[in-house]
Amino acid sequence: MTQAQSGAQMYALAKRLWPICRSLTGDGVRQTLAIMQELLPTLMVHEVPSGTPAFDWQVPAEWRVRDAYIADLDGNRLVDFQQHNLHLVGYSTPIDAIMSREELEPHLYSLPHQPTAIPYVTSYYRQHWGFCLSQQQRDALPAGPFRVQIDSELFAGALSYGEWYLPGESQEEVLLSTYVCHPSMANNELSGPVVAVELARWLASAPRRLSYRLLLLPETIGSIVYLSRHLPQLQQRLKAGFVMTCMGDERTYSYLASRRGNTLADRVALHVLQHRDPHFQRYSFLQRGSDERQYCSPGVDLPVVSMMRSKYGTYPEYHTSLDNLSLITPAGLQGSLEMLQQAIGVLELDRYPQATVCCEPQLGKRGLYPTISTRESGYQVRTMMNLLAYADGQHSLLELAELLNQPFATLEALCCRLEAEGLLRSGDAPRTEPLRL
Amino acid sequence: MTQAQSGAQMYALAKRLWPICRSLTGDGVRQTLAIMQELLPTLMVHEVPSGTPAFDWQVPAEWRVRDAYIADLDGNRLVDFQQHNLHLVGYSTPIDAIMSREELEPHLYSLPHQPTAIPYVTSYYRQHWGFCLSQQQRDALPAGPFRVQIDSELFAGALSYGEWYLPGESQEEVLLSTYVCHPSMANNELSGPVVAVELARWLASAPRRLSYRLLLLPETIGSIVYLSRHLPQLQQRLKAGFVMTCMGDERTYSYLASRRGNTLADRVALHVLQHRDPHFQRYSFLQRGSDERQYCSPGVDLPVVSMMRSKYGTYPEYHTSLDNLSLITPAGLQGSLEMLQQAIGVLELDRYPQATVCCEPQLGKRGLYPTISTRESGYQVRTMMNLLAYADGQHSLLELAELLNQPFATLEALCCRLEAEGLLRSGDAPRTEPLRL
Amino acid sequence: MTQAQSGAQMYALAKRLWPICRSLTGDGVRQTLAIMQELLPTLMVHEVPSGTPAFDWQVPAEWRVRDAYIADLDGNRLVDFQQHNLHLVGYSTPIDAIMSREELEPHLYSLPHQPTAIPYVTSYYRQHWGFCLSQQQRDALPAGPFRVQIDSELFAGALSYGEWYLPGESQEEVLLSTYVCHPSMANNELSGPVVAVELARWLASAPRRLSYRLLLLPETIGSIVYLSRHLPQLQQRLKAGFVMTCMGDERTYSYLASRRGNTLADRVALHVLQHRDPHFQRYSFLQRGSDERQYCSPGVDLPVVSMMRSKYGTYPEYHTSLDNLSLITPAGLQGSLEMLQQAIGVLELDRYPQATVCCEPQLGKRGLYPTISTRESGYQVRTMMNLLAYADGQHSLLELAELLNQPFATLEALCCRLEAEGLLRSGDAPRTEPLRL
């Protein structure tokens, strides 16, 4: 599949998922996961009953909404959930009432400085109802009174999440975690799920050394629930993890560190981004806001970072109706896919090469010197000599790539060639004994 | 007591101590300590006989001076110790002679570039006599001859020093060390003793965890004598120590590092000063000049730093008659008092908090989220979440305060609240085992 | 011997060695080593037969050349090896032929951008012949045909190298390594050998603590052959090593790091150069190009750095006939000699001083305070006090010299004086136990 094809495919999936009204729980999540199962047949959907304890939390009530609107007394719908999912505050309690403008006002949410944007508002843990509308709509509302109708339910149901596991040669695993709780918004968050699905299909297309686990969760409560059930296993097996969020626009690349800041996930992400775009944005764990909050919490301490395009909270369309399908592009999604593919390439292929001969080897007799000398071939020989000169069995290819300021893939290809020539021999861990050749 | 009151009280004590002629030894020191005993009844005064060995040194002879002047032959006093203590070189030997201007000259000390200042000169370890005077006075001296009279004595007496000990719950102790050997000078050095006395009274006003030891010493020989008698105990018990010197003016705050530079005393001092005044002066141990020279010497190696206002040697009035009571202020002294109180606050309250639940706790159900959201309350919640997110039992509150760029007291207050809620549990030392919750 | 004398002597030796046609092997190397034996009678010359294996390499055939030229058909020599050694490509195979300009062209080497320079070209490991000439000469060549004559031989002979060993009190040794394979070029490389010989004579002139080993090698293959025979002994005994190359001009000083970058050799070289010339050039191991490539290769891992004037590859005359005796000077060579002498001074004299008394000692009673106080003497006393204040037995004199920003020799002289006074006691290694005095 060409780059253009996979970009277009991801964009098409985003378009298909767009209209569904997702929330923490409910049928919108189930419909979303069902569509993903078409593409990932082994995707499992788990249902966790409302009230189930999860560390300091409980699975909340399930939310169902059939209709919601503000109308005038002639029945003309002025703000209509059927028109846009964002018009209704998430987890709104039911209401059917006639009220004055004054009574309605505390339940309206708009953005005076972004007059065309409908804001995204939820009230998961405080019983509340409300409508979101653009400032222009709000200004145009008549004097009232209004008919306010929310045909919703909060009931003992379940929280749904998806889990897809791809076993590799080793039980050591890579975690990919993204969100299925955002209603019609694109960068945050249809981009994460659609890139994740494409990445999973790519992973499944060939055997790999490591195992992979993809989680499609409602944010916060989803990862807390998952961790409450599987933490010891994750702590034992996890090599590195990536929160996949805000992956659809083309403005920049971003990395948000783990709490410790120096895990393998951090080092891999930093290396990949430095070579992908030297101007990428680097955020500290102090600027966290996604599920790394749970994965990196004290006592959980998993090596998880976020890899993004424009980070949540940093772009003007964030958490409004302006974060729509025109904000994300096939190329934007494709860049994110490749970023993760490169990170996985490092995790799959990193190793500790060591030279098998003392002193520089004679490259000439092995045909490793180019017969025609060009600037390019000279540069490649220099990199090959550098790899040999630093391959002391105590530095990984990733460390050498950093030291030699080379993309991992370039160095790894040279390493393969030198291993084939018998000039390097690689191990899974640093040598502890001084080399005796 | 309000800030203004304690500042005024310290200033008043400085004024009362001002006229006394202090030196390494002698009745001036004893009078000074006696006045301090009025305020600190448990202050003990120790007398160490002249000739007592102390490491590489010996306690010097005691110095007594009754009168000293240079007069013309008509008996008019031209330079008169009764007018200012600084007119006489400290430890001057006795003389009663008539001499020419030429004979007198090598015994006169003035500062051509500070023509109104009387310099401060001593000759503790070389037998010598001399007079200090302003350049203006010197220029106005008649042609001579002169009557030179110093009615002094160097005799086998004692060195006096004060020691005040406040026991706490723990034998671990904090050392506070300052000087009682400077004659009429204010910043260097009535400020250190008067702040020390006020600090001691504050310490004694409530029970505390740590023990406190205040030393009122003649500089250099005093700390050497003290260390020669008590070093093993100090090495066993000392948690942190502070040399209190030059604490009276308002121009700046200063810190001078210990030799190792990274002791607890260093880290506490740096933290307190960063938040008190980001423009504070930072000096290396290479710029030392006070009793940290002894406390940090090889083989002694105590965790001691200096906390100051304008450091000795850096301000124009230093070691002259211009370092007088107009240089120091109640507010200057008060700032130094608070700086030490804050440092002691850190030493008393630092601990290693660890989260008691995996993942973020639900603050809402505990009422820890503000009901009315303001910029201030949002900021506080963010800091609280950060504290929870980093509380892994391996970083102390002081380290977390540095990491989160918060004053220690702010974080400590949040820590208390979260401990009360059961969300944090704190220990005295970093966890060595991974947390299993 | 004065500085001017030793500079002149080194320059004279360079002049004497200049005309000899050196290469990887052959009589030019043997003549060069024979002249050096006149100055270093204990210099041993080793002969290693062609074909002898050395790690990944084999000793190449020996090369002998009697004559070589390009002539017109009248016998006029147009390019003549007798005129300049560089005219013949090193290791050229024999030929005796008449050929057209077109046939000749692929065997000619010149530098269009340096039209007066004859380049230096070799073909050690690919059978080839060629002539080097200035671009001006090349442009002036007639149309042809040409008589091309190279009276050379490649035969089973030997590789020759020199080794000089000076035993000291300890078997711990210092390696000095330089090249004898460069034909008539001056900075790279007659400067290294002539400075090395002078340094060896200086070393032999007085007893020293360490042992010294000087290697006079053909580059690359020479060090590979040597290491293949002596690696375990070097790994056991080597304290520090220096590649001596490009030591003759006056433009700058340069240092090229070992692979690890923090060996004793690195720290010594950096210290010496910082005080010799704060503007010295600092190169990473990534910019390597001399025998540190072998000494620092994985599995060899010796603490070896290069100390140079203008580094190979960085100056315009490099590897051309312009790198001649006018590029190097007696003063340039002398500076390099002193640089190595200073480095050896540190290696010989470094130690771990510790104070023998607690607290500052009383310098006055020992006459260590100057009786007449000047700015200079005050500075010296300050440095002496600093040495005493930091001499905790855990930092070497070299580390203290860095910390106090003093030349090693200054600090070492003060250390001797304080040892003589009994105020310092020095050990060969850092103290592992806390000092108890």
Describe this structure in words.
Chain A has helices spanning 3-17, 27-39, 101-104, 135-140, 191-204, 221-237, 264-276, 292-295, 330-349, 375-390, 397-404, 408-420, and strands at 44-49, 53-54, 57-58, 62-71, 77-80, 95-99, 108-109, 131-132, 146-155, 158-166, 173-179, 211-217, 238-244, 254-256, 281-283, 304-308, 352-355, 424-427. The first copy, chain A, has three domains: 3-60 and 158-348, 3-Layer(aba) Sandwich (Aminopeptidase), CATH 3.40.630; 64-154, Glucose Oxidase, domain 1 (3-Layer(bba) Sandwich), CATH 3.50.30; 351-427, Arc Repressor Mutant, subunit A, CATH 1.10.10. With 437 residues, chain A is an alpha/beta fold. Helix content of chain A is 33%, strand content 21%. The mean pLDDT of chain A is 95. Chain A is elongated. Chains B and C meet through helix 6 of B and helix 10 of C.
The order of strands across the largest sheet of chain A is 1-10-12-11-13-16-14-15
Q: Please report which band the strand proportion of chain A falls in: under 5%, 5-15%, 15-25%, 25-35%, 35-45% or over 45%.
A: 15-25%
What is the helix tally of chain A?
12
CATH class of the largest domain in chain A: Alpha Beta
CATH fold name of the largest domain in chain A: Aminopeptidase
What's the domain count of chain A? 3
Low-confidence stretches of chain A: none
Q: Specify the CATH homologous superfamily of the largest domain in chain A.
A: Zn peptidases
Number of distinct beta strands of chain A: 18
The ordered string of helix (H) and strand (E) elements of chain A is HHEEEEEEHEEHEEEHEHEEHEHEHEHHHE
Largest sheet of chain A: 8 strands, mixed
Secondary-structure class of chain A: alpha/beta
